[in-house]
């Protein structure tokens, strides 16, 4: 399964945060750091590794359909998802015309679920909801892609055989998806904070306790009564994400996930730390520090508040804040986002500080590309997937064209920052569903050094190293390996909705904390079996998990 703990944020969202003056790494559900070489693997003799392996020119051009998400980076107005310079590279590689359906990030889960329920699948499907997709694949909705992969050096340049093994359905043993490569992704997740606001309202130093954070926010609210200090954005069934979770993370009880303690897995929703976070959230809500619309904000509303209302923080993965080549707008000159260091003193309710630390990412992300069993031409559909892994698309997305988006000086490519960062092309990063959003980091770093303040750039790189060190120490998460039943997959949406509803109602005062406790008891009766399955798998596979780098298997 795709772990909701380690992959929730990274696998669901690309989230190019131009409003914050940063851009995603051109260097999200877990990846490994390090610039590994591309592995071409063992291929069939007749296969080739360049675009010459695309469909033969004498073959008729056919029309195929594809459903994919924009990963939080929509096409600009006037750009046709089915006909633009970037997707046309894929179309020409495969010798097809693609009818693209690309719902917004906010609508993706709903439309994806409706698509699966309808049974009327297009030829190619991209999704980050692995549990649901694998379940339908076992029922016959998608085909096994291993034979195609084994004969595709182009795919193997980015997705190694080891990555394919990690993407294998652990229930059926089939290879339903081509996973997104993520081996170059910066490690870890953390609380990204408006550093300038912290320095302004906390005497030029980081808060060292939760009480200090709360006092700082109160000071800020008094000075800026119109600010929306703590906001949130809703991600499908997951009401709490990004701006809505840092308080939970400081208590070591992130929503919608599990904790391993004494060899047993339990839902964080049932922990005393979660309850304490809800109580603090409610207090801040009553004081007007929490956004009154925290339970209904969509992407657009959230980022508008981030831009104009001095939202203080969000919990996100390191790859979402890699310094890039987007110069700050004049109105953002004083704004600086930076990863917050750990607290010096954590609340007494927290069982162990290790539960607040980030995980190491898997070398693949939660994104995957699938071919429908109903495809009119699976071979040509495969060529479309190869097109998304083509050298031409990779070059277009990350570097563009010589003379237009970069120049060459003494054999070294020099970015033309304003051209590379233009909105007419930055959206294309969401097409990196095979080679990954975090590939091409050399161009991102080169751009950053040209436009970023050196001191600010150093602070960010130092903070990212902090996250990396923490993640490497924590190790991989159990949920990257655990095999759960189809019954669990079917219950996941209901579980998320239950957690969201009870938490929102408690924060808004619609139920008392005593009633919240009753909801927790109800939750354990309805969904406790999920975590019993986690524990059973952990118990039966403890040694192999420890060998694979899952340190929490020994917690």
TrEMBL record:
Record organism: Paenibacillus eucommiae
Region (Disordered): 30-57
Record's keyword terms, sorted: Cell membrane, Lipoprotein, Membrane, Palmitate, Signal
The UniProt record lists the keyword Protein biosynthesis: no
Full protein name: Aldouronate transport system substrate-binding protein
Residue ranges that the Swiss-Prot or TrEMBL entry lists as coiled coil: none
Lineage: Bacteria, Bacillati, Bacillota, Bacilli, Bacillales
Keyword Cell membrane appears in the UniProt entry: yes
SUPFAM superfamilies xrefs: Periplasmic binding protein-like II
Pfam families according to UniProt: SBP_bac_1
């Amino acid at each position: 399964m795709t772990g909701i703990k380690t992959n929730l944020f990274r696998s669901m969202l690309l989230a190019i945060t131009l409003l914050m003056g940063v851009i995603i790494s051109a260097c999200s559900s877990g990846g490994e750091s390090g610039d590994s070489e591309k592995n071409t693997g063992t291929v069939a003799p007749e296969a080739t590794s360049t675009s010459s392996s695309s469909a033969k020119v004498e073959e008729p051009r056919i029309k195929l359909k594809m459903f994919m998400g924009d990963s939080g980076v929509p096409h600009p107005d006037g750009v046709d998802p089915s006909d633009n310079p970037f997707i046309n590279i894929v179309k020409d590689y495969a010798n097809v015309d693609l009818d693209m359906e690309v719902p917004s990030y906010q609508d993706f889960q709903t439309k994806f679920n409706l698509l699966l329920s309808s049974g009327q699948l297009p030829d190619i499907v991209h999704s980050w909801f692995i549990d649901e997709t694998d379940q339908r694949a076992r029922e016959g909705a998608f085909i096994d892609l291993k034979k195609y992969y084994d004969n595709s050096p182009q795919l193997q340049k980015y997705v190694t055989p080891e990555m394919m093994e990690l993407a294998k359905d652990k229930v059926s043993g089939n290879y339903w998806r081509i996973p997104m490569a993520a081996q170059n992704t910066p490690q870890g997740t953390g609380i990204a904070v408006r550093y300038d606001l912290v320095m302004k309202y906390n005497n030029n130093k980081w808060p060292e306790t939760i009480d200090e954070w709360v006092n700082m926010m109160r000071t800020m609210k008094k000075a800026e009564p119109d600010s929306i200090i703590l906001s949130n954005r809703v991600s499908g069934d997951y009401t709490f994400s990004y701006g809505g979770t840092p308080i939970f993370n400081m208590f070591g009880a992130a929503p919608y996930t599990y904790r391993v303690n004494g060899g047993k897995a339990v839902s964080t929703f049932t922990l005393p730390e979660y309850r304490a976070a809800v109580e603090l959230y409610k207090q801040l809500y009553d004081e007007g520090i929490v956004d009154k619309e925290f339970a209904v904000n969509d992407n657009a509303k959230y980022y508008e508040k981030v831009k104009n209302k001095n939202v203080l923080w969000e919990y996100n993965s390191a790859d979402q804040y890699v310094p890039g080549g987007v110069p700050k707008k004049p109105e953002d000159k004083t704004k600086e986002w930076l990863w917050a260091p750990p607290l010096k003193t954590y609340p007494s309710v927290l069982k162990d500080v290790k539960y607040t630390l980030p995980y190491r990412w898997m070398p693949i992300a939660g994104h995957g590309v699938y071919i429908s069993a109903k495809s009119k031409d699976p071979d040509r559909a495969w060529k479309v997937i190869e097109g998304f892994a083509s050298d031409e698309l990779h070059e277009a997305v990350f570097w563009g064209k010589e003379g237009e988006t970069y120049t060459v000086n003494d054999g070294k490519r020099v970015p033309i920052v304003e051209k590379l960062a233009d909105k007419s092309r930055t959206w294309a990063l969401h097409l990196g569903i095979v080679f990954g959003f975090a590939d091409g980091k050399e161009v991102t770093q080169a751009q950053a050094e040209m436009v970023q303040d050196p001191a600010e750039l150093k602070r960010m790189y130092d903070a990212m190293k902090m996250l990396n060190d923490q993640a490497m120490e924590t190790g991989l998460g159990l949920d990257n390996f655990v095999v759960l039943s189809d019954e669990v997959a079917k219950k996941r949406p209901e579980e998320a909705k239950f957690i969201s509803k009870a938490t929102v109602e408690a924060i808004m005062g619609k139920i008392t904390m005593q009633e919240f406790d009753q909801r927790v008891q109800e939750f354990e009766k309805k969904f406790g079996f999920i975590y019993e399955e986690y524990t059973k798998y952990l118990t039966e596979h403890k040694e192999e998990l420890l060998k694979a780098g899952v340190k929490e298997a020994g917690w």
